[in-house]
Structure formats: C-alpha cells, structure tokens
Amino acid sequence: MITEQEHTVHNFHVDSDNQVRIECPECGLARFLNAEGFRYVRDVFIFSCQCGAEFRGAFDFRNGWMRRVNLGGEYYNPRSDDSDEMRIEVLSMDGLAFRTLGRHSIERGDILNINFRLDNVLSTEIRRQARVLNVTDTAIEVEFHRRPPYDPDLGFYLMP
Ligand SMILES: [Zn+2]
Predict the structure, then answer these.
(1) How far is the CA of 109 from the centre of ligand 1 (A)?
(2) What is the pTM of this model?
(3) pLDDT by residue (tens digit) across 7-26?
(4) Is-contact 142 107, C-beta < 8 A?
(5) What dihedral angle (degrees, nearest 10) is formed by the CA atoms of 149, 83, 101, 107?
(6) Over the stretch 117-148, which tens digit does the pLDDT of each residue have?
(7) Ligand 1 centroid distance, CA of 37 (Å)
(8) Which residue segments constitute the domains of the chain, with CATH numbers given?
(9) H-helix or E-strand containing 135?
(10) CA 6 – ligand 1 centroid, Å
(11) 34: CA distance to ligand 1 center in Å?
C-alpha cells in the first residue's frame, strides 16, 4: 500500500557505527539496519512495514563527514598505464566516488593516483592514492590508500 506520503523521502540518519534506525512514518515501529554497504549509493529505497505502510527513505551519512560534490579531477592507473579526467560525486575522509568521462580499464583492487582541487577559496589541491572498491559501468568507488593520519584540508572541507 502506497500512502499519500508516496512522494516524501525520509532521511534516516546513519550513526558512526553505520547503524541506521528506520522508523515507519505511519505507525512509528522502528528497526535497525546496517548501512555500511550503502555509503556511496544515492538511491532512495522503498521500505515496507509490518503495518502495511510503504515509505521512501534515503540514508544520511552526514556524521561520517561525507559530502556530495561536483569536482573535476584526474586519475592515473599504474597497472594499465592509463590516465583520464574524472568527475567526483561523493567525497569523504575515507574515500570518494567518481565517474569517468568515458571508457576505462579500471578494475576492482587497482591502486589509482588521484588528484583534484576542492572548490574552496584556496582551490586546495588534493593528491591521494586510492584503492578501487567497486566498479559499476563508469561509476567507481575508491578508498584512500595510506591516508594521512592528520588530514586538515579534507577535514575542514567536509566538516558539517
Ligand atoms: Zn508501520
């Protein structure tokens, strides 16, 4: 049953342990899920409750200092000696998600050299090594490899 809330998207806050509390907007029944695997997923999910209600929800990872961005950058893949431009869509302290502008030869497990500029006042340049976690068509998810223990540039940029 889709209710009049069909077009409302509820934001469910994910805590620092990746636990998210999904509360039914109709009856208030709550359950807990682990949202770890959804960190870079932008999708809106449809949940159904025991009471029969269906509602739309998205995971809100703000506590994880994740930010949706639109930043240009470049990657170099030493394994395939391949470099190209990219468009970063999601940025966090731990990694990022980007799209390649065309065909690519990136595979899961590759270590990429990545550089991009933040859209802050100083256009701070960020250079990182990153390990590829997931490849879906032109959408790539990476985690930073040997991330610096103190990372003020990204930290200030991502601070909520
Ligand atoms: Zn319910």
Answers:
(1) 41
(2) 0.62
(3) 688 888 787 678 888 999 99
(4) no
(5) -70
(6) 999 999 999 999 999 988 989 999 998 887 77
(7) 25
(8) 4-64 (no CATH), 67-158 (2.40.10.220)
(9) strand 125-136
(10) 14
(11) 19
